[in-house]
Design brief:
globular, 8 strands, alpha+beta, 7 helices, endoplasmic reticulum, two-stranded antiparallel ribbon, six-stranded antiparallel sheet, calcium ion binding, signal, EF_Hand_1_Ca_BS, repeat, about 220 residues
Length: about 220
């Protein structure tokens, strides 16, 4: 798995715990292909190429570097709110630049050692494909190893470690290594937001991520 998998998990809580600064999403359309008849809408499966940088120009992730575009369902919380809002009404082949305030990104806590607190995010994105909506992944079920309908810190910890593990024995990136170094902090950040009654477990009702299988 890559850094974007871990960031997708953190997107469940990032915008909710954002700081108080009031700034807006900025969307700059770089290019639009001729003859666009289908545009992205809520619930579509989008396949994107992207590069993400911070204000200082530091690149924290890029699908181009891996030569592997990223596919996700828009509008259901699988990505940060800046993407859910900034990638609507987009044509296949269209390129945009997104400037995303921390309130629509990873908030006042950031994301481990990769994205600092209150960070403004800059993305150059290209829409590769628009597909039909797939069955929603039941992330709660994937984390709940003992199937007791409650998530413990240990279960969440193991799930995150699996998401961070490089596929097929590949080499771990420096960004993922940094995330692992702050692994315990990430677990606590998620629990602080999701464990509403502070009983040390995240119940099915408390969990804000995808948790229902499609019928």
């Amino acid at each position: 798995m890559t850094l974007r998998c871990v960031l997708a998990v953190l997107a469940l809580v990032g915008a909710t715990i954002a700081g108080s600064e009031v700034t807006e999403l900025k969307v700059d359309v770089v290019s639009v292909p001729e003859g666009c008849t289908v545009k992205s809408k809520h619930g579509d499966m989008l396949t994107m190429h992207y590069t993400g940088t911070l204000d200082d120009g530091h690149k924290f992730d890029s699908s181009y570097d891996r030569d592997q575009p990223f596919t996700f369902q828009i509008g259901v919380g699988q990505v940060i709110k800046g993407w859910d809002q900034g990638l609507l009404d987009m044509c296949v082949g269209e390129k945009r630049k997104l400037t995303i305030p921390s309130s629509l990104g990873y908030g006042e806590r950031g994301a481990g050692n990769v994205i600092p607190p209150h960070a403004t995010l800059h993305f150059e994105v290209e829409l590769i494909n628009i597909g039909d909506s797939p069955p929603t992944t039941n992330v709660f079920k994937e984390i709940d190893a003992d199937a007791d309908n409650m998530l413990s810190r240990e279960e969440l910890s193991e799930y995150l470690k699996k998401q961070m593990a490089p596929a097929d024995g590949g080499e771990m990136s420096e960004d993922i290594k940094q995330m692992l170094e702050s692994h315990d902090k990430l677990v606590e950040e998620i629990f602080q937001h999701e464990d509403k009654d502070k009983d040390g477990f995240i119940s099915h009702e408390e969990f804000s991520g995808p948790k229902h299988d499609e019928l």
